[in-house]
Amino acid sequence: MLERHEIEAFLTLAEELHFGRTAERLRVSTARVSQTIRKLERRVGAPLFDRTSRRVALTPVGRRLHEEVRPAWEAIGAAYERAADAGRGLTGTLRAAFTGAAAGQLLAGVEELFRSRVPGCEVVIREAQPGEVAAWLRDGEVDVVLTTLPVPGADAGPVLVREALMAAVPAGHPFARRESVGLADLERVTVVELAGGRAAPGSPGPRAATLHEALTLVGAGRGVLPVGAQTRRYYARPDVAYVPVRDAPRVEWGLVWRAGGETGRVRAFGRAAVDLLSD
């Protein structure tokens, strides 16, 4: 039987056809590579390489051995990687959700990068409403959600995106004519309550289960709604104006998962998210 170091030395030398470069790739000495190849040739009973002072080339015996060993060695490596992935929880299905159109677009990019890295894991994408996130994670409906932070009872990865806070106001509201408003201004108006949304100053107004429903209430003059700046781009409406809230903390987005439920799949998905946004 061939030893692992013999196979690696033979296959690498067959590719490089240079003892020095082979040694560099294997992080051993050139003498060690030469010794390993000579030992292998003695066991085979025939030269595997023709060596001169100017070149290294496979012999017919060496070429045949290379053609038969390389696919088998690659298959062994692939099988090992699949087993390691399974051990780290990187096979199977990852159920990922998002809240809002901007998060959906970002999640699609993360999913594409993740699948290129972990082809053995299927990704199922779902849209969640803000008020559903905590329950979906608690009940195991999804494994990870891209949403605004924080989410009660959930663990979170690093902040991926920060954006300014804006106030969605009726198009005819006095705030709509301002360049910006302050938190103190919001304390004097009625605020539409979006289930699972961020707490805001102001008098509690009608409740909404979805962002579309909340914006419809805003357009109908039932109140104002604090939203992230991306809402102006993805949810433009003729009956709603978006005004910056100049003194508000920025809205933070990130991946969240059930407390204590960070699997290998979730970790790999989180790394893909960070890497995508750092490029």
Automatic annotation (TrEMBL):
Residues that span the membrane, as ranges: none
InterPro entries: LysR_HTH_N, LysR_subst-bd
Presence of the UniProt keyword Transcription in the record: yes
PROSITE patterns, alphabetized: HTH_LYSR
Pfam family, one: LysR_substrate
Keywords assigned: DNA-binding, Transcription, Transcription regulation
Domain called HTH lysR-type: residue spans: 1-59
Family according to the record: Belongs to the LysR transcriptional regulatory family.
Full protein name: LysR family transcriptional regulator
